[in-house]
Write a structure and sequence with these properties.
Shape: globular
Structural class: alpha+beta
Distance between the termini: 24 Å
Bound molecules: 6-diazenyl-5-OXO-L-norleucine
Oligomer: single chain
Strand content: 5-15%
Radius of gyration: 18 Å
């Protein structure tokens, strides 16, 4: 299997030169656009991997998966559904394109910035520091890696430049959808985006979603199948932003991307996969990462549709 993964990386490597690393967060602009890695975990099999799969990168929007999960675990499906909708937005992750007088929970989605920022308020904790620590600890648990930490430089860089997210958060405040101080909520969101992971960590998290909240490697149940189905369905419809429809056609399984260049892929009842390639396409999804997943999906018949 490692040979197949290496072959696919070699075949897709040229796509790394066709994308561009994110520059709107200055610290992200410093990464090497040529990196490419993959990690695959299946119950009852040895892990398979190739390329730069142990390179560390920040989760960025992949963490929206964890924010949604923890909001569901802490506050339940009804409260989550009351605050954020389930429909795909068909818009970029940081879109401002909401018409005046029309913004309601139904118009935002857990996988775009407005939805993820709003969902931070449904995570339990006395302070936003505590909410963030609970989010980090859940991520450590599912990744089976207690060492996960925050990249302080990326966190500071995003906090200094994140005025679009400030604008979105004040818009949510103006429409009565969030009530806590914007800077506190955003601090939790920016820290969450800056959690450092490898492909192995993301594949391990994906494995738990693939097995509906149960970790087949250690036999522990972390959350209910009902919540896993909620998250997996949300990833399938909107995990790749306005590239989600195309991704469903060419790759065909639930996935979440981040501007750090990672993609977490869930193949229900089978495996967890993650890829890393920081040069992005026009949707903010990893350019080569999507191509690698498409090739792998075709080769191993991973599509669920
Ligand atoms: O909110 C932001 O700008 C980032 N920290 C996360 C955005 C992101 O990863 C979008 N993904 N493709």
């Amino acid at each position: 299997m490692n040979l197949l993964l290496k072959q696919i990386l070699d075949d897709c490597r040229h796509y790394t030169a066709q994308g561009h690393v994110a520059t709107y967060i200055p610290q992200l602009a410093k990464v090497d656009p040529g990196k490419l890695g993959i990690y695959m975990i299946e119950a009852g099999a040895h892990d398979s991997f190739a390329g730069d799969c142990f390179e560390r990168f920040t989760m960025q929007s992949v963490v929206k998966t964890m924010i949604l999960l923890l909001a569901l675990m802490d506050s339940g499906i009804d409260k989550v559904r009351a605050l954020v909708g389930a429909e795909a937005t068909g818009k970029p992750f940081d879109t401002f394109n909401y018409s005046d007088q029309a913004l309601t929970g139904a118009h935002i989605n857990p996988m775009v910035n407005t939805g993820a920022i709003a969902l931070c308020t449904l995570i339990h904790g006395e302070t936003y520091e505590e909410k963030f620590m609970r989010l980090l600890n859940l991520t450590r648990l599912l990744a089976d890696n207690q060492e996960l930490t925050v990249d302080e430089d990326v966190y500071r860089s995003e906090k200094e430049t994140g005025n679009k997210n400030r604008a979105l958060a004040y818009m949510l405040t103006a429409y009565g959808m969030i009530h806590d101080p914007v800077e506190d909520i955003l601090d939790c969101y920016f820290r969450a985006c800056s959690i450092l992971v490898t492909c192995r960590d993301l594949a391990r998290i994906a494995l738990v979603f693939a097995h509906h909240g149960w970790d087949p490697k250690n036999g522990k149940r972390y959350f209910t199948p009902e919540l896993a189905r909620y998250v997996n369905a949300t990833l399938a419809t909107c995990g790749m932003y306005d590239g989600s429809g195309e991704f469903a056609l060419t790759v065909g399984f639930p996935a979440k991307s981040g501007v750090g260049g990672g993609i977490l892929g869930v193949i229900p009842k089978r495996m967890g996969i993650a890829v890393y390639a920081p040069a992005l396409d026009k949707h903010g999804n990893s350019m080569a990462g999507v191509k690698v997943l498409a090739a792998l999906s075709k080769e191993l018949d991973l599509g669920i549709f």
